[in-house]
Amino acid sequence: MSASFEELDFRQTPIGDLSLRRRRELSLDVDVYEIKLGDEFLMSSLFTASEIALAELGIAALQNPTKDILVGGLGLGYTAQTVLNDTTVSSLTVVETLDTVIDWHATGLLPLGPELTGDARCKFVHGDFFALALSDEGFDPSSSARKFDAILVDIDHSPEFLLDPQNAAFYEPDGLQKLATHLRDGGIFGLWSNDLPDRSFSEKLSTVFTKAWIEEVTFDNPLQGNQFTQTIYLARKSDS
């Protein structure tokens, strides 16, 4: 039987105090892994439906027989794991701004760490996703200006609720246009949001991409006995 609660690690980071916790949810008989930034919950292994959907929907929208995928934000690893579960994926690059989170996976402190690090298709890049998105060099330090078939992002809570105010420029048309330069023709941009759909952001996507659409992901909250809806924004770069 697991201990009812354990703080697995605590680190001071440039964006605040980061902690990794494991607790036993007795009502469901499961261990729950949680990451907190200060007093704020960033993510929980109890609620992963939309993180998984981000990968499934993004990949499903692609038409290439083999796929090079980039994930912005490693977190607990559920989006990355879902990408690797697709046998048509040839490579996965995961960009994470906090080396602490990469370390948690690399040392096996998080359950999905061994699976991600043990897959030869997967590599981690320690870097600021938003700064790299706006750069000419792009996301892969070993291949300047490398393009991807899909870029799937789960970092901020939503396009309006940001972890860092400096990220705001990314969600404007100029920032999205710069991101699109790192996609291959026909490539897909996917964005996770904790909030209900924001039509104004979808309209911004439509000014940059040839097609933009919204997918709502509704799942049960077993702790509250109700349902919760989060949002996946998707957009396709034109075939030119």
How do the strands and helices of this protein lay out in sequence?
Blueprint: E1 5-13, E2 16-25, E3 30-37, E4 40-44, H1 49-60, E5 67-72, H2 78-85, E6 89-96, H3 99-106, H4 113-117, E7 122-126, H5 129-133, E8 148-153, H6 173-180, E9 183-193, H7 199-208, E10 211-221, E11 226-236
Parallel strand pairs: 5-6, 5-8, 6-7, 8-9
Antiparallel strand pairs: 1-2, 2-3, 3-4, 9-11, 10-11
Helix pairs in contact: 1-2, 6-7
Summarize the structure.
The chain is of the alpha/beta class and 240 residues long.
Account of the protein in words:
The structure is a single chain. The protein is of the alpha/beta class and 240 residues long. It has a single domain (48-236), classed as 3-Layer(aba) Sandwich (Rossmann fold), CATH 3.40.50. The protein is 23% helix and 38% strand. It has a 7-stranded mixed β-sheet with strand order 7-6-5-8-9-11-10. Strands 1-2-3-4 form a 4-stranded antiparallel β-sheet, with no helix packed on it. Helix 1 packs parallel to helix 2 (78-85) and helix 6 (173-180) packs across helix 7 (199-208). It is globular and about 55 Å long. The chain starts with a strand and ends with a strand.
Principal-axis shape: globular
Number of strands: 11
How many structural domains can be distinguished in the coordinates?
1
* Uncertain regions spanning at least 5 consecutive residues: none
Largest sheet: 7 strands, mixed
- Helix coverage percent of residues? 10-25%
User: What count of helical segments does DSSP give?
Assistant: 7
CATH C-level name? Alpha Beta
Radius of gyration, whole Å: 17 Å
β-strand amount: 35-45%
User: Taking all residues together, what is the mean pLDDT?
Assistant: 95
CATH superfamily: Vaccinia Virus protein VP39
CATH architecture: 3-Layer(aba) Sandwich
CATH third-tier fold name: Rossmann fold
